[in-house]
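Researcher: I've been going back and forth with a colleague about how 3-oxoacyl-[acyl-carrier-protein] reductase MabA might be arranged in three dimensions. Neither of us has a model we trust, so I'd like an independent prediction. The organism is Mycobacterium vicinigordonae, in case that matters for your notes. Sequence below.
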Amino acid sequence: MREVAAQQSRHQACTGVPRWVARRARKDKERVSPMTTLIGDLNGKTALITGATKGVGAAIALQFAAAGARVIVSGRHAERGKQVETTIRDRGGAALFVPIDLSIEEQVRTGIDTAVQHYGSLDILVNNAAPTDVVLGGDGAAGDLRTNQLMSILTPGLIGQFWACRYSLPHLIANPTSAIINISAAASKTVYPKPPATASARARLTR
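Model: Here is an independent structure prediction for 3-oxoacyl-[acyl-carrier-protein] reductase MabA. You can compare it with whatever you and your colleague have in mind.
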């Protein structure tokens, strides 16, 4: 122990930095984000992420960009989407915000077309968007749920995801290594008191 302490003292005297601090700095420099490791190398790939203006979607966009992907940040809120786009570009990545509301079929189609025209291809679709403003407020018990409430969740949460897949497929098929990632939720497999519409929409993404 005395010898180790003496070595650390000599190292600090020479460098002005304790040995453990220098060792920690080297490890931090070499550390790779676990998510980046899972994703792998996405250089040259174009990824469209729905609901990427905040939360999980924004985090996915940032990680994909860090892995080398050209990211299409899509969502309903332009200001937040532009902020995510700017963050990615400031970090040296490639990103473009494209407004897409999954409850409007024509906007889904034109948004995907815009993305492909900008980058020339589409390799990955991440269906992440969900009507969280409605879901977080609770969609009510099944017996109290009105048709318009049901459709406000099912349209973007299920049908809109179908539209995203449908209009992306012609571009994805052109690339044999393309992928579609559908983000579900615990509500798809767990019974909760008051999210029947949410549970229904998410369950159809996992079955």
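Researcher: What would you highlight for our discussion?
Model: I'd start with this: Strands lie at 46-49, 70-75, 94-99, 124-127, 179-182. After that, consider the following. The longest strand covers residues 70-75.
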